[in-house]
UniProtKB/TrEMBL annotation:
Family the UniProt entry places it in: Belongs to the XseA family.
Top-rank lineage group of the source organism: Bacteria
Keyword Cytoplasm on entry: yes
Keyword set, alphabetical order: Cytoplasm, Exonuclease, Hydrolase, Nuclease
Job description of the protein: Bidirectionally degrades single-stranded DNA into large acid-insoluble oligonucleotides, which are then degraded further into small acid-soluble oligonucleotides.
Enzyme class, spelled out: hydrolase
Subunit structure and binding partners: Heterooligomer composed of large and small subunits.
Keyword Hydrolase belongs to the record: yes
EC number(s) from the headed UniProt entry: 3.1.11.6
Exonuclease VII large subunit C-terminal domain span: 127-438
Protein name: Exodeoxyribonuclease 7 large subunit
Residue intervals of the OB-fold nucleic acid binding domain: 8-100
GO molecular function: exodeoxyribonuclease VII activity
């Protein structure tokens, strides 16, 4: 049998299924008929959405249920926004609802999307100026009797009691709301406003249905917010509610309370930060003092009294002086020995002695020269006479003296054969005593081999 794969527990299966649904599908709108609406004491709402062919269990938790203005009655047709999930303990597949609207709200949503696209194309939603934190003077546009202003004032008083706030009462619902808000914004942006130090505007109201919040989707109100000289924060409705005023404002908060938290710092947090910084400063100061004290001890340990330094310097100077004196004495003794050696060598090679020896050698050489020179001159004269006799015997002049002649052409070349000449050619003949200029009359080709005892070339 093959080995069976590891099996998952039921909890693991339900957990994985819930994660897959929530991750892959996300939020969606579901339209259907209400059935089995239940309101237990916990404040949660449980109901079923159904149509002709299927049904879907839904849960609307208390934190969201209190913002639903639509009556929740069996048989009503509604549109529910939420996310699919699984209740793991029972494995129930359900829709966790975030908002509920009557089906008639669809037309308002379509109008909202058309206005949103139009204003976005015109750049009305491009505001992103930073709001001062905290503002010197905050102008709040809201209903003076609503829960929003109470939440804002309560949070500001708790977080930043020094906040300077001016409430501008305006209607926040109905036909008069949008014109009133536009007029108030125009008033606050004219110079001077209620206070020349005003530097931020907050537009806010509590939650409600899409119809209740429709005044904040007014096209002219969005433009007035966009053109406001003062930066504007919008906090209309709750986290799930989004209006055109939110897009046109410089900043948006999900709730009025969150807007107050964003506008001012928390004094308690600042106090804690100050205490923490004070503690860090104290620790850093103590650590610095300890480091400097340690550095001072180190420097003190290295510091010596001038008298001690002078004593050590004297001792070092005495040592150096002793070494210098010993070195000088040793060097002087070495130089004296070297001087004595040079004196001995100089005495052995004195110039007078060397001159006397050289004079004696010169006298002996002069005597030998006077004896050898006449003898060598006589021998050279004999050799010269013999060589002169031999040279006279083989000299061409001697041959010419015996009746011979040397013929030369006009170029000075020696003529050895008759064939080398031509009739009429001028020649020169060199004889024993003098030179003759000749002209060839005739040439005879004959045997030019000299006979014994007969001169050639005559």
């Amino acid at each position: 049998m093959p080995t069976a794969p590891d099996a998952l527990s039921v909890s693991d299966v339900n957990h994985r299924a819930r994660q897959t649904l929530e991750r892959d599908i996300g939020e969606l709108w579901v339209e259907g008929e209400l059935s089995g609406v239940s309101r237990p004491s916990s404040g949660h709402l449980y109901f079923t959405l159904k149509d002709d062919q299927a049904q879907l269990r839904c849960a609307l938790f208390r934190t969201r249920a209190r913002f639903v203005a639509t009556p929740m009655r069996d048989g009503d047709r509604v549109r529910v926004r939420g996310r699919l999930s699984i209740f793991e303990p029972r494995g129930d597949y359900q829709l966790i609802a975030e908002a509920v609207q009557a089906v008639g709200v669809g037309e308002l949503l379509a109008a909202f999307e058309r206005l949103k696209t139009k204003l976005a194309a015109e750049g009305v939603f491009a505001n992103a100026r930073p709001l001062p934190c905290p503002p010197r003077h905050l102008l709040v546009l809201t209903s003076p009797t609503g829960a929003a202003v109470r939440d804002v004032l309560a949070v500001l008083a708790a977080r930043w009691p020094l906040a300077h706030i001016t409430l501008i009462p305006v209607p926040v619902q109905g036909r008069e709301a949008a014109p009133a808000l536009i007029a108030a914004l125009g008033l606050l942006n004219r110079q001077p406003a209620l206070d020349p130090h005003s530097d931020a505007i907050l537009i806010t109201r509590g939650g409600g249905s899409l119809e209740d919040l429709w005044a904040f989707n007014d096209e002219h109100l969005a433009r007035a917010i966009f053109h406001s000289r003062l930066p504007v924060m919008s906090a209309v409705g709750h986290e799930v509610d989004v209006t055109l005023a939110d897009f046109a404002a410089d900043a948006r908060a999900p709730t009025p309370s969150a807007a107050a938290e964003q506008l001012v710092p928390d004094q308690r947090e600042l106090a804690r930060r100050i205490v923490a910084l004070e503690m860090r400063l104290g620790r850093a100061f103590e650590a610095r003092l300890e480091r400097e004290a340690q550095r001072l001890d180190h420097l003190r340990a290295r510091l010596r009294h001038p008298g001690e330094v002078l004593v050590r310097r004297r001792e070092a100077l005495a040592l150096i002086q002793g070494r210098l004196e010993r070195a000088i004495a040793s060097r002087l003794e070495t130089e004296r020995r070297h001087q004595r050696q040079l004196a001995v060598r100089l005495a052995a090679h004195a110039p007078a002695r060397r001159l006397a020896e050289a004079g004696e050698r010169l006298a002996r050489a002069r005597t030998r020269l006077h004896i050898a020179m006449p003898r060598q001159l006589a021998g050279h004269r004999q050799q010269l006479s013999a060589v002169a006799r031999e040279l006279q015997a083989v000299s061409p002049l001697a041959v010419l003296g015996r009746g011979y002649a040397i013929l030369e052409d006009d170029k000075g070349q020696v003529v050895r054969r008759a064939a080398d000449t031509a009739p009429g050619q001028a020649l020169s003949a060199r004889i024993g005593e003098g030179r003759l200029d000749l002209k060839v009359i005739r040439t005879d080709a004959c045997d030019t081999t000299p006979q014994s005892g007969t001169p050639s070339g005559r």
